[in-house]
Amino acid sequence: MVFEFISESRFHHIDKLEPGPPNVYFMDVFTSEKSNSNKDPLTGSMFLLEHSETNDPAPKYDYDETGVVVKGELHIADETGNKQVLVPGDTFFIHRGSLITFSTPKFAVAYKTAARVGHVSQPKAKI
To answer: pTM score, two decimals?
Structure first.
């Protein structure tokens, strides 16, 4: 296979993160082949965050991750007090070992890519 794609309309069908907070939707959509010889895994994911009054930090990142905000407004804060408000077109990079808190006043949609093998369990819909 040379390349894969998913239409923009797929962002309207992001799975609920289970287990996870009630306002987080997350779905791996592309991933490197799973093998012991793959030393540089890469996974692309869709991420939707809805507003919540409480925002617990995400688990500690044991991989590097980068992303771009597609819709909405995403607030990111780290354990050092670094904070940023991101809007569509803004990109971010999260370093391995970070503790990150995501929040939003309404909603945020992002496409994220991480240095990890993903969990794509269903055929990729070509919507």
So the answer is: 0.84
Q: What is the pLDDT of residues 21-59, one digit of tens each?
A: 889 999 998 988 776 666 788 999 999 999 988 887 777
Q: Which two tokens stand for residue 97?
A: 């070992």
The bridge status of strand 107-114 relative to strand 65-72 is antiparallel
29/111 Cα distance (integer angstroms): 10
- Decide if 10 is inside a domain: no
What's the total number of domains in the chain? Answer: 1
User: CATH no. for residue 94?
Assistant: 2.60.120.10
Q: Does 58 reside within a domain?
A: yes
Q: Bridge-partner residues for 48, per DSSP? A: 25, 109
3-state secondary structure of 52: coil
